[in-house]
Amino acid sequence: MRLFWELTKLSFRLQLTYRTANLAGLATNFFFGLLRASVLIALYGEQRQVSGWSLAAAITYTGLSQATISCLSFFGWWEVMQSVYNGEISADLLKPMSYFSYWLARDLGRAAAGLFVRGLVIMVGYAFVFGITTPQGLGHWALVALALLLSYLVSFCWQFFVNLAAFWTPEARGIGRLGFSLSWFLSGFIMPLRMFPPWFVRLARWTPFPSMVNALVEVYMGALTGPEIARTLLVQVLWIGLLFAASQVVLRAGVRRLVIQGG
């Protein structure tokens, strides 16, 4: 565990050194967040509620989803693919920790830096520009923190799984882009799932994607009762386990293929 946390801290510090990139990313995320909020304001018009959400809740949703972009890497993460293509995987597999744990430690540091540098700043900015709803009480904040951690782990497991396609194709980014595009719609990132037709929501529930964004949003908004919160968190844990198990099976098959080909 010590090696894991040391790698995480190093990755966190590395991300903080990219000041210009962080500022550019922050400005971009906040600008598009304002555009999304403006679209929702126009859509609401004179309506007080849509699908049980007030306009303030909908605006808060746009801020929260924009704030987690960097943390959850919704627009692409290709690090594992690159390690396969450039041969670094041969050294990574010899490290005194599992390949999955090594990349989780590295990405956790990146995600934590993104959350603090971009995520928190965006939420504070939203609070000043629009006024947003916030969790009530320490217990609610603790549940939000737990949901955020589980959302990140589901997202990372999915990203890692998709990246393993690099073992079977010389250019796996097309597969990766398809995987990330699916997550935009089915996770509730583009629009809250509760605003979609019931059949679409039922379809999304059969995928891990709602556990990345929608679960966090619903917990943050206080839209769930006690049993519903427990069930939502349990589903997140279940998807983490399933995606982790699937990635380990695919990784072992990929490594055998790599060795057989003399990689």
Describe the secondary structure blueprint for this structure.
Layout: H1 2-16, H2 19-44, E1 49-50, E2 53-54, H3 55-67, H4 69-72, H5 79-85, H6 89-92, H7 99-129, H8 138-163, H9 173-186, H10 198-205, H11 214-221, H12 226-260
Antiparallel strand pairs: 1-2
Describe this structure in words.
By secondary structure, this protein is mostly helical. It contains 12 helices and 2 strands.
Summarize the structure.
This protein has helices spanning 2-16, 19-44, 55-67, 69-72, 79-85, 89-92, 99-129, 138-163, 173-186, 198-205, 214-221, 226-260, and strands at residues 49-50, 53-54. The protein is mainly alpha-helical and 263 residues long.
Task: Describe the structure using short key phrases.
globular, 12 helices, two-stranded antiparallel sheet, 263 residues, mainly alpha, single chain
Strand content: under 5%
> How large, in whole angstroms, is the Cα Rg?
19 Å
Shape: globular
Q: Which range best describes the helical content: under 10%, 10-25%, 25-40%, 40-55%, 55-70% or over 70%?
A: over 70%
Low-confidence stretches: none
Distance, first to last CA: 30 Å
Helix and strand content put the structural class at mainly alpha
- What's the mean pLDDT score? 85
| Separate helix tally | 12
Q: Please indicate the count of domains.
A: 1
Give the beta-strand count: 2
Order of strands in the sheet with the most strands? Answer: 1-2
Q: Would you list the SSEs in sequence order as H and E?
A: HHEEHHHHHHHHHH
- Summarize the main sheet: 2 strands, antiparallel
